[in-house]
Amino acid sequence: MAQWGAIFSIIVALGGAALLASVHKIDEGHIGVYYRGGALLTTTSGPGFHLMLPFITTYKSVQTTLQTDEVKNVPCGTSGGVMIYFDRIEVVNYLIPSAVYDIVRNFTADYDKALIFNKVHHELNQFCSVHSLQEVYIGLFDQIDENLKLTLQEDLTSMAPGLIIQVFHWI
């Protein structure tokens, strides 16, 4: 009889562990995306408590509200060969909830690394390479942020529809 009690206790403990591993919470302003065996599932979920297959399915929470990405120490080579650095660039952006699955499928849950950080470096280098030091620092300085915001948003509209750049500015 004591063996049945021990077996029952083990079963209850394993069931409790499985239940705890299957319950997860998605915060307000986020969308949950799910992976099974490393493969992205088509299922997404909104804020609240949800269940998933324990130990097999994993999830990541993707922010859909305004977020600020800081791109630091961006090198910029001018047409004259002078290398200058922009200490900090802030890109305020948000993700439309209905676009989360497609963006995660194409760029992973860390989409902002490829679509924001790397693109800011690239676009700023493109801009600086065709302008002189005088143009970058004095003549066109007040237009750089708006031009880069428009260029970045145009690229994102074609590559990742649903990712919106709200503000782009130097700090």
TrEMBL record:
GO terms for biological process: cholesterol metabolic process; SREBP signaling pathway. It is found in: Endoplasmic reticulum membrane. GO terms for molecular function: cholesterol binding; ubiquitin protein ligase binding. Residues 1-17 form the signal peptide. It comes from Lates calcarifer. Keywords: Cholesterol metabolism, Endoplasmic reticulum, Glycoprotein, Lipid metabolism, Membrane, Signal, Signal-anchor, Steroid metabolism, Sterol metabolism, Transmembrane, Transmembrane helix. Belongs to the band 7/mec-2 family. It comes from the Eukaryota. This is Erlin-2 isoform X2. GO terms for cellular component: endoplasmic reticulum membrane. Its main location: endoplasmic reticulum. Residues 21-171 form the Band domain. The keyword Glycoprotein applies. It is a single-pass type II membrane protein.
